[in-house]
Amino acid sequence: MRRGQIRFFSLVAVLCFLAAALSSPLIDNTQQGVDAQAARARKAQAEVRAAIELLNSQIAWPKDAPSVSLEIGDLPDSVNGQYNSALQQMHVTGRPVEPSLQLTLLHEAGHYFDMKIMADAFLPKPLPLLSLPGGITLMPAQFSSREAKELQAWRKAVRASKLYQSLRGMLTNGKTPPPSGLTHFILYVTSDEEMWARSFAQTIAARSGSALSQQTFDFVKPRWPLAGYWNADDFGPVSDEVIKVLESRGWLHPLKLKTSAATDRN
């Protein structure tokens, strides 16, 4: 995921995206429809490139970090992105998503950090599940966000946040339990691995000074807590712990301080 770390298949992604769109009976196959699909594919590419550049500006990738193949294209409507730790594959949707496809890729990069970078650094190496032809070895998924003692302070900060407490409170407050679909969603969002991916994405966006950070806060505010991300007044302690974890192993580039024009001239 450093430069060259994610292999960005731009042409393949566009062609796959267009092929899927043109074969769907629900898609407008007129020239206007084709042009609209192509425009969406270009926009998705641009957002993914921007997210990779943002990641590279903040993350000092370990030299032995494995490459991850990245694809842009069709996913179920309820899924914006996926990371497969066994095959080292990342997949993000090509359709417009809220608040941003950039945040989606940062989120999936958070899963990669959790299940690969931090797992390799903080957890015992597991025994292989299966060896396949071609030298491919399938390893069991490991979540440092759940297990690593190095993330204990982060887990404590997450559980103390208003977001986590409000979501979990929806499961226990009131005379009747919430609908099963809402219960499943809350348990999913408040799992350690999801909380890590979300806090990683928001931290990287905020630390970079990118407009993505404020865009995310603006998206979250009217949808809180079910947006599943933190409000600005709730995120500081969680973000501080993410930064401490990343800095502990030299995984963050030094923060570049902005200087005034007068200072620059001296």
Please provide the count of β strands. 6
The general outline is globular
The helix tally amounts to 11
The overall average pLDDT, rounded, is: 83
Q: Structural class, judged by helices and strands? A: alpha/beta
Helix content: 55-70%
Strand order of the largest sheet: 1-2-4-3
Spatial extent as radius of gyration: 20 Å
Could you please say which CATH topology of the largest domain applies here? Answer: Zincin-like
- Whole-number total of structural domains: 2
CATH-scheme architecture of the largest domain = 2-Layer Sandwich
The biggest beta sheet, please?
4 strands, mixed
Strand content is: 5-15%
Q: Which CATH first-tier class of the largest domain would you pick?
A: Alpha Beta
Low-confidence stretches: 1-27, 259-266
H/E element order: EHHEEEHEEHHHHHHHH
| Distance from first to last alpha carbon | 37 Å
Characterise this structure.
- By secondary structure, the protein is of the alpha/beta class.
- It has 2 domains: 6-122, Zincin-like (2-Layer Sandwich), CATH 3.30.2010; 150-248, no CATH class.
- The chain has 11 helices and 6 strands.
- It has helices at 10-23, 31-58, 101-122, 144-147, 152-160, 162-172, 180-189, 192-208, 211-220, 232-248, 261-265; strands spanning 6-8, 68-73, 81-84, 89-93, 130-132, 136-138.
- A 4-stranded mixed beta sheet has the order 1-2-4-3. A two-stranded antiparallel sheet has the order 5-6.
- A hairpin with a 3-residue loop joins strand 5 (130-132) and strand 6.
- Helix 2 (31-58) packs parallel to helix 3 (101-122), helix 2 (31-58) packs across helix 8 (192-208) and helix 5 packs antiparallel against helix 10 (232-248).
- The radius of gyration is 20 Å and the shape is globular.
- The two termini are 37 Å apart.
- Mean pLDDT is 83; it is low at 1-27 and 259-266.
